[in-house]
Write a structure and sequence with these properties.
The complex is a heterodimer of chains A (114) and B (116). Chain A is 0% helix and 50% strand. By secondary structure, chain A is mainly beta. Chain A is globular, with a radius of gyration of 14 Å. In chain A, the strands form three sheets. In chain A, strands 2, 5, 6, 10, 11 and 12 form a six-stranded mixed beta sheet that branches. In chain A, strands 3-9-8-7 form a four-stranded antiparallel beta sheet, with no helix packed on it. With 116 residues, chain B is mainly beta. In chain B, 0% of the residues lie in helices and 55% in strands. Chain B is built from no helices and eleven strands. Classes of the chains: A mainly beta (114), B mainly beta (116). Chains A and B meet through strand 6 and strand 10 of A and strand 4, strand 5 and strand 9 of B.
Amino acid sequence: AQTVTQSQPEMSVQEAETVTLSCTYDTSESDYYLFWYKQPPSRQMILVIRQEAYKQQNATENRFSVNFQKAAKSFSLKISDSQLGDAAMYFCAWPKNSGYALNFGKGTSLLVTP
Amino acid sequence: DADVTQTPRNRITKTGKRIMLECSQTKGHDRMYWYRQDPGLGLRLIYYSFDVKDINKGEISDGYSVSRQAQAKFSLSLESAIPNQTALYFCATSDPQGGQRTGELFFGEGSRLTVL
C-alpha cells in the first residue's frame, strides 16, 4: 500500500521560532516528487515546496526547507522564522502509482502565536 | 482571474437534491481531478480525467458522477445528495507534458457543499 501519513494533527510555534512538520510515506517507486501544500483559512491550496526524490540535496524555498530521508521514507517540512501568516493547515503529498494523481496526508494544523 | 475556477463557492442543499459543481481552467492542462476534503481525512480522489474521452474513478467515487465537456471543463455531480457528502470539494489540474514532470497539482478555490 502507498500511504502518506502526518502524525501531528496540530502544532504550535511562537513567532520567529522554528517548527518542523513530519510526514512519512510508503512507495515502491524510484523516481518521484514529494510536495508540501499550505491551506490558509481562505482554503486555497498553495504549493509550498517540492522535493525530487532522486536528488540528494534537500529543497529550500526562502524560510521553508525539507529534510528528506529517502531510505526512511520521511519528508519533513521546516519553517524558520515563523510568521503569523504561516498559520494554516499543511498537507504533504505523494504521487500515486504511475503518477496519475497525488495522495495526501491528513494534514497538520499549525498555530503561530505572537 | 484564477487559472482554475470553481462554481459555486458555497452551496447549501437538502437531502435528495441533485447538485452539480463546475470547474473550468485556463491553464491548458489535459489532466483534471476532483478531490474531496474532510476534517482529519485530508484530500481524497473522487474522479480524474486525462482528456475528454478518458474518465476514471478514484477511491471514493460512489454517489458521484462526472462529465468532461471540453478540455477546459470538468463537472462533478451528486445525483441525490446525502448529508455525509457534506465536504469541501476541490478541482485540480496537472500537466505531465509541460516543464518538469513533477505531478504538481494546481487547485481551484474549493466548493463548500452542505447537505441538510
